[in-house]
Amino acid sequence: MGLIAEEITIKTDQRLEQARQWLLDLGVDIQSDFLDIAGDASFRRYFRLRADGVSRVLMDAPPPEDVNPFIDIARRLRLAGLHAPEILHADWHHGFLLLEDLGDTLFRGILDKESVDNVFPDLFQILKIFALKVDIKELPEFSIRKLRRDLDLFPMWYLDHHRRGMPRDQFDLTWDEFCNTIIHSALEQPQCFVHRDFHSCNLLKTGPHDIGIIDFQDGVLGPISYDLISLIWDRYIAWPRNRIETWIEQFRLELELDIEPARWLRYCDLMGLQRNIKIVGIFARLHYRDGKQGYLEMIPRFYDYVTDTLRRYPEFKQMSAIMEDSQCVP
Question: Which residues of the chain are modeled with pLDDT < 50?
Fold first, then answer.
């Protein structure tokens, strides 16, 4: 919804005709065609249109996609003073939302090595609000099952579909114990609202001191380190390790966490392993199952994040050797 792509006027689309009629029945004055704008990696689609004299965004989430989590999390974020898009109209049954248009100025195009020191303080403030102010009542939990399901995307999609020649015996013997260590570390941390995909493509500059937040519908009650590591282990910029460790400690001090620095660093590193292993699996799934282009090319960066972290912990020596085997690496 905030991502820039080539825009195409959509003239014949049954879902869009249904959405158009829904808006007309609500009395919305539609003043333009629906223009396709790039969205996220799900089956949701986003379209920009002019309605009642203002640019709006239509979310098309065909069942079994469910718009209710998006509505719920948007409400929680807005109540905490954060800029999630306002939901102007909702058709829960058919999967249509008419949203405030947050524009196209993604932080992906703003964040670089020169700007990071000016950009990160504002993003850290959002993370602080996530941790301290967003309502967590009745949020779904980032449970053992969900954490393990994320990890298992790696053998299920990356190894089984992309690295099929890799001998699996040694990996399978090590995998359960490795996953249990990662999950235990995640659940041991303080728990708070977690966006689950907090990075530069889901953040938009909507004003001089305002940041729009999108793609938050998978938000959960989960480990306090998760969104931080999503931000600093970026898909477009590989930050030096010393900078990553500085930001990790800065965040600990900012939140006044009663956790020793070395323990907090370990929490963040192991949380980074969970997320980055998951991303490798998801990108393989997007390519092989969903036919989405461009994701395989992004795998090596996240694979490097995983292997670099594994090398730092002697307890993961065996998994590190397996992951760096020539039959496994990108």
Answer: 1-11
